[in-house]
Amino acid sequence: MDKKVLRLTWKFLRAGVMEKLTFRGTTLGTPQGGIMSPLLANSYLHELDRYMTRYTSLPQKEKTLRRRQWLANYTYVRYADDFVVLCHGTKTQAEAMREELYQFLKSTLRLELSKEKTKITHLKDGFKFLGFWIQRTMGHKGMTTKVVIPQEAVDKIKMKFALALTPASHQDSVGYKILALNRLMGGWCRYDQYTSRASTQFNKLEHVLFWRMAHWLGRKFKVTMPTVMKRFRRNNTFVTQRAVLTRPTEFPTRRYRQTFRKPNPYLTQEKKLEREELPYETYWTGYEARPGMADLRPVILERDECTCQRCGSPVTDHTAEIDHIRPVRRFKRPVDANTLDNMWTLCIPCHKRKTKVDRQGESRVR
After folding, report:
1. Residue 194 to residue 198: CA distance in whole angstroms
2. pLDDT computed for residue 260 by the predictor
3. What predicted TM-score, i.e. pTM, was given to this entire model?
């Protein structure tokens, strides 16, 4: 690796990191979850990739010859700082490769490979890599290697659904709740839909999500299950005027047919690559400043006929401001201010003028 690159990288780390528009000096490491962490790992561990080519770039004829000589063949895969080495040989040969990598990382890259965390296991017993469970099992056409979703990952997404639909969140808007669940479930399903039996596991997850959402709606509106189904259920999911709960089974199991690994668009220039369709909507962070306002907004706009109640100018869903007639600060409980009688539609200029007058009046009172 070029020493200039390492020197510039080290200077960047010593300069500090930006957090909330403020630079903070750092002495070790990179920000948790920052983009620099995988970038530095790819840059620094490139030497490890080059070292492993002595085993992975052998032609098939030479690999066959090595097997006849009772020597092992290896397959090496790395993603950022996580890597796995598959050994077609004995356990002793796998342990020798681990020791070889330990010595290379220590002497050349000055990295310490944890022997306790670097496990050696048989492919039939399976192992976890990048959130997937990889195991060699018997399939319809004989022995095959399957990539499945780990059970702990399924339990984790179920726990996230339970936290999102906790009884304490019944004041949240239904539309925002559906939007949050769609973002949470969409990202999870898109990541795991390339595994074996993804549709089967998505079907089980859909059953859990459906009934958790049904009970959440029942608690929010204090109605029975038949009433919930009659009011919100459409095509075996829950819908509102503006939102539809996406079903996990809408993400089918997918396969990469042409290559074993997903092609790298920066290295494959022979033909145009087909991109996956990614969601273009903004990601919901799970925070609603005023719980329930997202449900009241379309109702108030329809009641006021999309017209500013001060100047009478027409407004749209993007240019309308739903404002409190009586300020929220005058209520003992802020939630009591969110009623249809206390809210009206304003255009942006009228809303700014009203807010300015209210603030000036509050300053005079103080």
Report:
1. 7
2. 55
3. 0.70
